[in-house]
Specification:
Two copies of one chain form a homodimer. Chain A is built from six helices and eleven strands. With about 240 residues, chain A is α+β, with helices and mostly antiparallel strands. Chain A has two domains: about 5-140, Jelly Rolls; about 145-225, Orthogonal Bundle (Arc Repressor Mutant, subunit A), CATH 1.10.10.10. In chain A, a hairpin with a 2-residue loop joins strand 10 (about 205) and strand 11. The radius of gyration of chain A is 19 Å and the shape is globular. Chain A starts with about 30 loop residues before the first strand and ends in a 15-residue tail after the last helix. Chain B binds a DNA duplex (30 and 30 nucleotides) through helix 5. Chains A, B: This is Crp/Fnr family transcriptional regulator. Chains A, B: Pfam families: cNMP_binding, HTH_Crp_2.
DNA sequence: CGAATGGTTGACGCTTCTCAAACTACGTGG
DNA sequence: CCACGTAGTTTGAGAAGCGTCAACCATTCG
């Protein structure tokens, strides 16, 4: 346990300008690392000596219990940073679920840059705020939402762009097992819930990995626990 | 919604030295604010214009859904910062569960200090790393642990000091409802689980708010899902 | 073509939730 | 001092959602 899988990653770092936002300055030819799906970038307990910038592809972060139970704590795709919030050792395992392109920054140099560029520290801080917001939303989801509400929330979070608009359809880069371990469910329940949403006419499933949205409004209601059918009648006490 | 309860807090800020660690430099007489139990320090959706330093007491952070379902995302007690990870508006509601003493730092000045003192930025970053670690542990708890495992984990997290040692007994500052909303359970299940742990001889409950630990080893096994009785035989695949 | 992998569907059971009542502690007012 | 109301906790009985186990289907790859 705690093996240094990070050494799987070859290549080195020419210190490109840490493009936190997708589409930000990314000079052609800066040294990046291509990894295959299934590659473990770092494992829970590893020495956290690097910060990664995800250029493209999707990674999965997860923790495991001694008996094998797994919790996916997040998916990270293009344009985001990975491994900033790790003091000492890695908090969780990061694995590529699709082929991915990464840019590695040695932690020591990364932290020197933070000290040297005041604006950078605030930008990193803002990134971590986002991580924390996502984590809190996920806690609400895991602790208080039903299976349908979880899946609806999940699909909408994937469909949403930065402006809060939704795509008409999406492709799921991850497996049903990954989704289940992300939502605190089993694959069977995830599958059944997809089927239920399809039967209810909220989504279409041309194939297991692609989802078309047929009724975004009703999906949003489900995701937030908003309207339970007729649109009125919440629980007493609030509202 | 989003009312500015923060204005409940009077007093002002003489810029004491942001004591991130309990027991760090805290000049006598710096302006602090005393709040009663039940005081809402800030509410989800409020403008996040302040960072708070919790001097003493315990606060609860929580989010609510439109129908009233509630998820407590964390408890914050003496020596920790509150509200750093909020860009724009507050992510959740912060409420005192005990009488508390706070020190308020206007956000603008706080961020100027981050830019001015490079070391501070890293210390704040380290604080947020801890928040994120806690959040990830909580996701594992909420998504994958049973009721007993959740309660055992919760009790041990309260009993643990910075060195990883456990206290013999603790007083719970929060209600069963708060615990339930923190662990993704109902008050009834929390109560039943306490009773079960007592009947199994792992804890004693002189009164509802105080817990004595009678078998810390077995509690730890429960919390991690480690040994299920005989100490051997995990699931195949791992180990 | 056959095996392997991932996804879907079904039957059943268990953990936890829901609803309800009783008990305790505490403060109020007669 | 004691009856009373209130809020929090505990306990009980029944229901339901989701997990478990198992079989089946679809796709891919050798």
């Amino acid at each position: 346990m705690g093996a240094h899988f990070a050494s799987q990653l070859s290549g080195n770092d020419g210190f490109s300008p840490l493009a936190v936002r997708p589409g930000a300055a990314r000079p052609a030819g800066t040294p990046v690392q291509r990894v295959a799906a299934g590659t473990i970038v770092f494992a829970e307990g590893d020495v956290a000596d690097s910060v990664f910038e995800v250029v493209s592809g999707t990674l999965r972060l997860h923790k495991v219990m001694v008996d094998g139970r797994r919790q996916v704590t997040g998916f990270v795709s293009g344009g985001r940073l990975l491994g900033v919030a790790q003091s000492g050792e890695c908090l969780c395992t990061a694995e590529a679920v699709t082929p991915a392109v990464l840019r590695r920054h040695p932690r020591a140099a990364f932290e020197r840059r933070i000290d040297a560029e005041p604006g950078l520290a605030r930008r990193i801080l803002a990134e971590m705020c986002n991580d924390l917001r996502r984590a809190q939303d996920q806690m609400l989801l895991l602790g208080r939402k039903s299976a349908v509400e979880k899946v609806a929330s999940f699909l909408l979070s994937l469909a949403a762009d930065e402006d809060g608009d939704y795509a008409d359809s999406i492709d799921l880069p991850m497996s049903r097992t990954d989704i289940a371990d992300y939502l605190g469910l089993t694959t069977e329940t995830v599958s059944r819930t997809f089927t239920k949403l399809r039967n209810d006419g909220l989504i279409a499933l041309p194939c297991p990995v692609s989802v078309e949205f047929l009724d975004l409004d009703q999906l949003e209601d489900l995701a937030t626990g908003g309207a339970d059918g007729d649109g009125w009648a919440r629980r007493p006490g609030i509202c």
